[in-house]
Known about the structure:
The complex is a heterotrimer of chains A (279), B (337) and C (294). Chain A has ten helices and ten strands. With 279 residues, chain A is an alpha/beta fold. In chain A, a hairpin with a 2-residue loop joins strand 9 and strand 10. In chain A, helix 3 packs across helix 4 and helix 3 packs parallel to helix 5. By secondary structure, chain B is α/β, with parallel strands linked by helices. Chain B has a domain of 77 residues. Chain B has an eight-stranded mixed beta sheet, with helices on both faces. The longest helix of chain B has 18 residues. The model of chain B has no long low-confidence stretch (mean pLDDT 87). The N terminus of chain C is likely disordered. Classes of the chains: A alpha/beta (279), B alpha/beta (337), C mainly alpha (294).
Amino acid sequence: MSSTETRLLDVRGLRVVYPQAGGEVAVVDGVDFTLLPNRAFGIVGGSGAGKSVLLRTLIGLKRAASGAILFNGVDVTNAKGRRLKAYRREVQIVLQNPYTSLPPGRSVQDIVGEPLSIHGIERVQRAARVIAALDGVGLARDFVDRVPEQLSGGQRQRVAIARALVLQPKVLLLDEPVSALDVSIRAQVLNLLVDLRRDRGLSFVVVSHDLNVLRFLTEEVAVMYGGKFVERGSVAEISDNPRHSYTRRFLAAIPSVERSLAGRRPSPSRLKSEIITHV
Amino acid sequence: MNAQPPVAEPLLKVTDLTVEFPIRSRATVRAVDRVSFELAAGTTLGVVGESGSGKSVLIRSIMRILDYPGRISAGSVVFRGEDLLAKSEREMRAIRGREIAMIFQNPAGSLSPVATITSQFLEAIRAHEHVSRSTALARARAALNAVGIEAPDSVLNKRPFEISSGLIQRIMIGLALVTGPALLLADEPTTSLDLIVQEQIMTTLRRVQSEFGTAIIFISHDMGVVSEISERIMVMYGGRTVEQGNLQEVLRTRRHPYTDGLIRSVPSSVVRPGMRLYAIPGQPPDLARLGKGCSFASRCGRVHEICRKEDPALSSITPERAAACHFPIEEKESVLN
Amino acid sequence: MASDLTTADADELAGALRERRPRKIRLRPSLVIGACLVLASLLLAVLGPMIAPDAASRVNFSAILRPPLIGWHVAGTDQLGRDVLMRIATGLRVSFAISLSSVTLALVVGLSVGLISGYFGGIIDLVLMRLTDIQMALPFIVLAVAILSVTQPGYFSLTVVLSLAAWPTYARVVRGIVQVDRNADYVQAALAIGASHTRVIVRYLLRDLFGSMLVLSILDVAAVIIYEATLTFIGMGVPPGTPSLGSIMAEGKNYIATAWWITAMAGLAMLITIAGLNLVAIALRSSLKEANTR
């Protein structure tokens, strides 16, 4: 059923390192996963676990020290030039902070149209595709002349999503898609993502520290800790039957209204004085 | 570490507090609009709100550390029977850090990067009292113990950059408590921290509540976090209080459509792929453009004509429960997901 | 990072007060005054020799060393009877021409070095920065005198020498800005959609650099005018006989006691020009900074 050819993304043993005093540290340390068409894969974990670095490596913004990334069977690990560009036409990323991920002072038209101009779509088609992309994210036509400074966080994130979708990629990588947004509008963007996925048959790789966001968006998640995937399964499986100790700690730390109302408070984890000497 | 014995009069009583900021076109916006609440000694009030809600401006006004050009234009802040707004800057300095302390979102931001933790403690203590170095150090150690740092000396000699941010935030709590304040203001103390670290901070704060009886005002945009620690909760929107009451009651039976919408729109443990989340339409308000009427009107699913014309006052539903809505949700309508 | 969560709601007030207009450069009084001064200077330089083409060189032994405001000579005459104002006008032309060309050269070199260094980093950065350091370590006058005494005197060598003094500053400033911007989310996002390095540099980084480069160059023009005058004053600048602010002042110094106006007027012209340029640069820098932090 899932022969190598139908795998959209096939990641094997991926390692990404950062230099550190006295050597290097593996921020992503031997990660494997596959992504099939029309499926969503989530990655959850605390900060410093390497989740964002993993996504950025998948899109070629960071160098992989070892391991492989295959897209539709083609090796795109540390790809350059034309191969990288072709890959980026099919796989796009939406970054976490909509206040910094859009170039300041550029019109929405420019921003959403940029992927089209980079990949050589003829000018005559561009305007129409930009409008279609904006429409797809629920932004009216008259947004094309606005600049990011005039937009709210939710609107900016929609522009970022429109930009990512304008080339009609197969895979969307999402780095904490709603964490930087106001709480009252997160549901709007989450619903939008679900609709887009269904309507376009997209696949997602979603990174979030919020397990319930992944519960809503994905079928399978991996818990990331110290650069490794320590547990895998659907969110339900992981929540009901956590096997790894980090997963258990993580689950116990999730604040929730339901839990507070039920009077269930987890036994407080021993407060440890962890002193980490790092820069 | 002075525990306040319960008194009949509230520790803090804020009445009709209004804070204005001038904006370019010579108009002003009201970042905080006629906010009133009471805080009994030793209790915790959670303040929930998002962009434009005014929650941060509110507690900065209580401490009177408001950034220029903000200005408290009306209202009173009565702390232990005295109006803080009437006090001089000198008098406020004696109160800040001593009777009212504050912790912030970015823990290391309030610490000098070149000074050791010891010196930060010494400075904090000696700003208010003349004590010997050894006494001050003993207090520092006790404060660090109180926040769960079992080996305080291992931390005292270090500088902030050598310590993880979770630990720093706990140290900040210790620093805030070392002078034995009656009130602790916490502005999104866990927001930029990892979940597991966040849990440690919350545990620390719960310990503070039970062992020291310090009253706390805890601000966050995250209802879940606030619910872990507060006895009472106040929901703010567009600079105004929209709902107030005991935590359990407010969360179970939401009266204000905004509170209701918030609770229902946050993905909870019952969501599944394929479902649709309840979403509040529209965006958080632009304070500069708030017109007459209810600040939530443009997003409210239960809006009526009058909502757009008249600003609903915060009215009591029960002696302990209030909501600012012309048509608050009936108790039987409110369903807990 | 989760810390970015704070930008959205910690800044709640900024969210409300955020001006929904694109940024504008504010007109400050200093900007207007400075611009007027520079404009006056430029007009004199451009129009003067056009209106009275040989007034600067027309020798008139019957009217030597006339004080200002006698007859047609607004600024008096010099030791050969030449009209001082017109000589200053020609001198300004020369000064502007030299400073504009050397600043342009310095800008081009410094910008390129800074861009490449800041963007690509690594060993290229190391090498280029060492070169910059070496250049900055050499005191200008010493270097200038050394070079000019061995090369052919002339506009070209003068321009090159003057730009040697200026380019390292551009390189450093550009490098600093590029290093930061390069890691900005929107630049990373552009790379992620497939933009080439060239595209990122031209469409994103250069735009961000524009303001700083403008301010720096204006300040530089002022500085180079002074440098050129200094070099000419000590005899190492423009070829002898060519009027320039420096040479006029140098000639005039022999007559200071009796015909103070020759040097003084040239000095005044320079003062007005420099002051104007500096005012414009400083005002622009403040206004740009303001516009950028909205």
